[in-house]
Amino acid sequence: MAKFSDGAARVRFAPSPTGHLHLGGLRTALFDWLWARKTGGKFILRIEDTDRRRLEPESVSSLMRGLRWLGLDWDEGPDIGGPHSPYIQSERQEVYRKHAQALVDRGQAYRCYCTPERLETMREEQRRQRKPTGYDRRCRGLSDSERAEREAEGLPSVVRFAVPEEGVTVFTDLLRGEVQVDNRQLQDEVILKADGFPTYHLAAMVDDHLMQITHVLRGEEWLSTAPLHRLIVDAFGWDMPVLVHLPVILDPSGKGKMSKRKKTVAGKEYLALVHEFEDAGYLPDAMFNFLTNVGWNFDPVEEVFSREEAIDRFQLEEINPSAAALPYEKLDWLNGLYIRELTAGALKAALIPFLSRQLGLREDDLAGDRKLDILAPVIQERIKRLDEAAGWLDWAFQDAEDINYNEPKLLIGRKMDVDGSIQMLQAGASLLETVEPFAAESIQGAFREKADELDVKAGSLFGPIRGAVSGKKVSPPLFESIEALGREETLRRIERAKLALENLQTDEG
Ligand code: GLU
Hints:
This protein is mostly helical. It is built from 21 helices and 13 strands. The structure holds glutamic acid.
């Protein structure tokens, strides 16, 4: 093991394209990447698509998109090639076939002709006898002539690895130390399937060797297969890479393993897939910061750090092997923080796709809309996710006619009546007709003077105006909102609000 501990690491992220990338997978990739960058090594992307039944071909691009989104660039991979191309296992079938044959030739693996029906009957019988289920090694004992017969018949077969019948297998996990397993507990697993595709056990071991992988970071669910992997690697006479089984991520309840789907815990919906986090408006930098601390800890006190600092401090040995639930609240908090650090230009650019999608507006129109230049900075402090912006800003992009003034409470200030509110709207309108320049600060000054002059509380004047401007009780700061809408549009809205109140008067009268 020591052989690999120093120097430039070669690590691989080896997802199976069976669906969208979830946060657990992204965390594995992130730790791979951190280790490669820290050691000045290489981060390799390998697609493990040998399980043809579970294959979802579109998920390859989704996986790549997720990695790119987080800023995890790879040095070798299916799209960019590299010294060990191809990096898609389905394109390397011949390599695995040859390796499986080499083991068969040496008696370390054997062809098994048992039909799925026979295996099922065998398992049923084992269950009936309350014995552990597993392959009974019937084909391991076939004589040469029995094999020749079956081959002559053209029977389909798989290749199984021949686990030593006695002894123990020892492997080391960097986080858990030495683990010993009695070989009698191990199965003669299939390494090459009847369709000619290898199973994970063979393909991953062969590729990790040929691609000169020094460290294997993978989910804890693979821990139980590590003894078999050790035996396969030994059978070829290769060196074992350093194994690091990463802790499981638990769902927010802390009870179950995090699922690949959105999950509702205590009435709250939690996201699981990487693209869902992207769609909700989490910033890659915030996610990077957050995930780095899931299973590893940058510092007991400092919560916020840069990518460079993370690379600098990251240590595989410090990963905590115990499972932990994701602290989602921390992600929201971090995201709010990273949003507040964006420059005005970056914030606007980040918001445009969200507002476009959620409010049905064209991105080009939004890019050229000065309302957004004024309003984006004022909601910056108020949002934790980019998808919250639409709820703050929808009114600014509606037509006056589409604003709903039917809720009188919206336009009538506290301790005020309809008449009083109409007066406030009128006073506001006459002021806005002339105020110069038409900018938040001067508008605010004029409004305060007006409130003094009328001898009313500022809030009594601002309340109805706010309702008229946005049609909402809670909205971004009023004077920036007025400036953003512009003189004409604000006056139009105040006029409509006034009409709504007047109708109320007639209805009541
Ligand atoms: N293809 C395996 C998976 O997606 C990879 C496990 C490993 O990293 O070795 O779970």
